[in-house]
Amino acid sequence: MTDPLTGAVPARELVEALTRRGQTVATAESLTAGLLAATLAGVPGASDVLRGGLIVYATELKGALAGVDADVLNRDGPVAPTTAAQLADGARARCGADWGVGLTGVAGPDPQDGHGPGTVFLAVAGPDGTEVTALDLDGDRWEIRLGSVRSAVSSLLERLSR
Questions:
Q1: Which of 26, 35, 36, 125 gives 91 a disulfide partner, CB atoms 3.0 to 4.6 angstroms apart?
Q2: pLDDT tens, residue by residue, 114-132
Q3: pLDDT of residue 91
């Protein structure tokens, strides 16, 4: 069954995979503003695997809540691979989860800090390290946010299958 929100890769599959492994996940979300955590929470059984999420829409909250280093924010900005990596690491550490997912980017319609709409950095932090993926998504704000969630679900599922 296809999840109406995440599309081809259902959040249900991710929750089931984490449950089988006895592992947990936490998120630190900027452009998605909690949409990933809400998507996972919509799956029955999510309470066994979803530790929590940090909504870090405002730049200063990326540091205050998720622990992104001020030097990284000043040097690289809020929309950067290094910021996404530290968001994922921060979510994992601060929520006591096995896995952390960080999402930061530009949903549009206007560019931000020299990045066009659809520029997204997705990081997945886990027991085997942190990996960052750059996404270039098309669509309006909602489509870019949904695409970010879809990509996050797919990326974590892929990491779990290794």
A1: 26
A2: 999 999 999 999 999 999 9
A3: 98
The model carries a pTM of 0.95
Cα–Cα distance, 16 to 91 (Å, whole number): 21
The pLDDT score that the predictor gives to residue 8 is 44
Question: How many folded domains does the chain comprise?
Answer: 1
The residue range of the domain holding 109 is: 11-160
Question: Could you tell me if residue 3 is inside a domain?
Answer: no
Residues in the chain, how many?
Answer: 162
Residue 4 falls within a domain, yes or no?
Answer: no
Return the CATH number at 153: 3.90.950.20
Digit-coded pLDDT (tens) for 53-92: 999 999 999 999 999 999 999 999 999 999 999 999 999 9
Task: Tell whether 6 is covered by a domain.
Answer: no
